[in-house]
Amino acid sequence: MPSTKQYGTAGPANKVIGGVPTIHYLDFASRGRGQVVRLMWEDAGVAYEDIRYGFDEYPECKKTVIAEKNPTTTVPVVELNGNILTQSYAILRHFGRQLKYEGETEEEKYLADAMCDIAIDWRTLFVTAFFSPNKEETYPKHKETDRKHFLSALETHLKSHNLSQQGPFVIGKNITYADLVIYQLLHDEGLTQEEGKGLQEYPRLKQMVDAVESRPNVKAFLESDRYLG
Question: What's the pTM?
């Protein structure tokens, strides 16, 4: 059976989004695209219901529970007030608009979207290599090629863009959903652990990771039993 847990107490952020959302996602520790949604809610102080599907039960649930909610039978799926939200990045942008994680100016919004899209391209290659039947060959190759390419690209963007130069986050002083997307990908690639040891060659990305992890609600989450590694 899927596990269901309620986290937090409904407060102002829940009022902003219109209630207490429910997220359906794999029981994949604190990893994956669905975790970025949870991370945004944690940071914003959103109370939510978390339904996790074990890998052994998911194939059957995908045909039934998930298929009833999403014709493409993919997760995450979010339910809120009778509405069903699908597609992880559309979900993030939806709540990002409501909770002010998108930037204020058109330039800020563009930069957040662009940096997120770079991370999406990287994640696609990461997942392909990591979950390949030949992982022992594909993932080490990925780490030496595609991963280094995208790390360098993101580092360069953050160092060179006039907005990024104004603070630790993508658009400077204010966090956006793009910071969370990039942070989660770095986490899933094993680069944020051990105080960001894997980012020694990328100081600007390390600065962003430190800024995300030092936010009070994120820090509390990472130190709680809700964080599953």
Answer: 0.97
